[in-house]
Amino acid sequence: MSATTGTGGAPPPTTTTPTPKRPMKLIFVASAFRAPTPWQVAENVRHAERLALEVWKLGGVAVCPQSMSALFDKEGPDERYLEGWLTLLEKCDAVLVGRSSAGVDAEVLRASMRGIPVHWNINSLRHILPVSESEVGS
Predict the structure, then answer these.
(1) Distant-in-sequence, close-in-space partners of 29: CB < 8 Å, separation ≥ 6
(2) Whether the Cβ atoms of residue 98 and residue 30 lie closer than 8 Å to each other
(3) Dihedral pair phi/psi, residue 10, rounded to 5°
C-alpha cells in the first residue's frame, strides 16, 4: 500500500467535476485597410490591431484580417482574400466595426444578411464577452 494514497498506488478519487469553460467568442474586426499611401495603410492596420487587442482584453478572440494579411499585397488576386475574409466572418459570433470603407460596408452587409450582430464600438461588446469590468486593463 502506498504511503501517499493509501490505495495501493492509485490516486484518491476526485469528488468535484471541473466546470466546463464557456467557449470564447470570435469577433471579426471590420476596419479599413486600403489607403492612398503605404503609411496610411500601416495606420489602418495599427488601428485595427488596437481594436483587436481590446477584444482580446475583454476575453474574445479577435479575427483581424488587416494584420493577418497586411503583407500579402499583390501576392494573389484581391478577390481571393476578400472572399476568404467574408467566409471567415461567417464563422464569427459578432463583428466590431472600426474605420469605414467600401470593404467594411460589404462585411457589415454580409454579417447582417447572416444574422451576425454588428457592434459599432468596443463598449457594446462588453455584454457578450466574459471578462468583468474589474478585469479590463489588468
Answers:
(1) 48, 51, 52, 55, 62, 63, 64, 65, 66, 95, 96, 98
(2) yes
(3) -80, 140
Architecture of domain 28-126: 3-Layer(aba) Sandwich (3.40)
CA 90 – CA 64 distance, rounded (Å):
14
Count Cβ atoms below 10 Å from residue 20 Cβ, excluding itself: 6
Q: Would you give the end-to-end CA distance of the chain in angstroms?
A: 47
CA atoms within 13 A on the CB side of 9: 0
Which pLDDT tens digits describe the chain residue by residue (138 residues)? 545 555 566 666 666 655 556 789 999 999 999 999 999 999 999 999 999 999 999 999 999 999 988 888 778 888 888 899 999 999 999 999 999 999 999 999 999 999 999 999 999 998 888 765 444 444
Which candidate, 30, 2, 32, places its Cα nearest to that of 111?
Answer: 30
